[in-house]
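Input (RagB/SusD family nutrient uptake outer membrane protein):
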Amino acid sequence: MKSNFIQKIKHALLSRTPKGNITLLLVALIMIVPVSSCKKSFLDVVPDNVSTIANAFVSKTEAEKYLFTCYSYLPTETDPTYNVGLTASDEVWVEDPANHIRSTNVLQLPRGFQNSSDPIANYMNGTRDAAANYKAIRDCNVFIENVSDQTKVRDLDIDTRERWIAEAQFLKAFYHFQLFRAYGPIPIIDKNLPIDAPIDEIRVKRRPVDEVVSYIAGLYDQAAAKLPLTIRNEGSELGRVTKAAALSMKAKLLVTAASPLFNGNPDYSSFKNKDGEQLFNPAFSAEKWQHAADACKEAIDFCESQSIHLYTFPTPTNPLSQTTMTQMSIRNAMSEKWNDELIWGLTADNNINYNSFFQSMCAGQYDFNNADAAKSANRPLLGPTIKMAKMFYTKNGVPINEDKTLDFSNIAELRVGKHEERFNIKEGETTARLNFDREPRYYADLGFDRGVWYMANSPTKTDEDTWWMKARGAEVGQSSPIPIAGFYMKKALNWHYEWATVTYTNYPWPEMRLSDLYLLYSEALNEAQGPVADVYTYVNRIRARAGLPTVQESWSNYSINPTKYTTKDGMRSIIQRERALELCFEGHRYWDLVRWKAAGVELNGNVTGWSISENSPELYYRERSIYSRHFVIPRDYLWPIQESDLLVNQNLVQNPNW
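Output:
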């Protein structure tokens, strides 16, 4: 069932006429050039429709519509053609030979087609599959300015007025964060300028990284002070922000700012504004990590006080094995709508059409246990890579190349599923060594050939003799192509999906959930103080939910590097891998690799997968190269500003190497 909040946003955007009550803010940046020519830019900071703005704040009803406009710029993460964090990462690869989905823009980022003349995913002006974040910020400024004026919206009570202003402050902070994460030092648009503002004020400049971070953090603090603790009117307000969301997103901002890309990065020591102002602080600061850790802990304590906790699958009427119960806790932490782990779920524009499109590429139309499933035009062309499959731990909780008790030197070696493995792999069926002896998250998150896939509509009503997957060439047929590497994103498919009718269950995109916050805290604390007790505590909570031993137990007993977890460097590696596994397919991986300055290694090289067109296991399980991924270092660590915008505002400087 769709949230009424989504419908309100759509109504606010689609029901406007020339005589309507809400007109989106259009503003113009004036450039001094011969004669009277001018050109608009993403940084337009002067409104050119002042006479119509007042109409949006004559009543509570009209003002709320404008607030929904501010929400409407939130990213559409359930459409992979917009989701940079997922589609540009090394978790997945997208292939579209028949052009069923757009083959340009975000899908082309990992192929090396980013440019400065017409940038892909231009977060500044909203072109090429991105939201117009500066336009969003201007709309937030308009809302805050007008609703803060007690002489306007006279039928608005003080508590609602304060809450709405706080929501707009949160959104303004988030849109600045989206820009900061991609571009680094950005212009701060704290308020819109009057129409008669001097030209020098209109030509805004980029601000140093530390100033940008301080400004965004301050907005989150202001918002947190007035936001509601929880959403009480769930029927109409789910998706609107809370204090927990503000504290958590502030924590994420500070962890990002403390990370190697932004904290003492020598690559940008000479990066300056045209007036010589340094845009990156060249000195590393350990204090930034401690500040981030403190913010994470504050957010965790508050979330837990509001009964936000790691999701566990409730005991069903029909009994399930503990193996399946663990997997369902892992899967549903992402795809069970409004579950108790969710801190902030995105709903604006994430309507059923986008959500079903995303899930269709997770499910596909293949033969489950010879079921007479309906065929459709669904094209599951987005799928995990073998690199991602290799990244998951063994059943002992350590990487496959570190486990001293299990041999994964030949991942394509054929084995037959045994009775005791029947909840992970179909008993009696042949599949690859890579699919055996893996951690529960492997079986919860990945769909693979001969893998078991329990769903709510299991033909046996339990996980015994339930659905299992056939994913070899002729078994699937041309009407339902297999993702190019042979794996599916099982985790992202809600477990109530109906194969026969191709019916999807909508769920909010998990922009922030508690496990993300736990890992941010462990990371920041480890960087600030080394592997102290809390570093282990919060990682181990996530591992326990995932059915794994503690970090200490796993490495001490099973790893060829038994003391790895005792050092800051070793624990850093463990935490970074935990983020990759726990948060896979949720749009974090690309941005994590960038802030860690690891993208140059991880986002270059060959993408590999199984030989999916083959029918026999001997031929199918051959690892083949599919494409070569491209990430140019150090250039691609920061997004390019469009060249035409640099001409409009000559105070702006381009990011290095573009």
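Residues 9-39, 365-380 have pLDDT under 50 and may be disordered.
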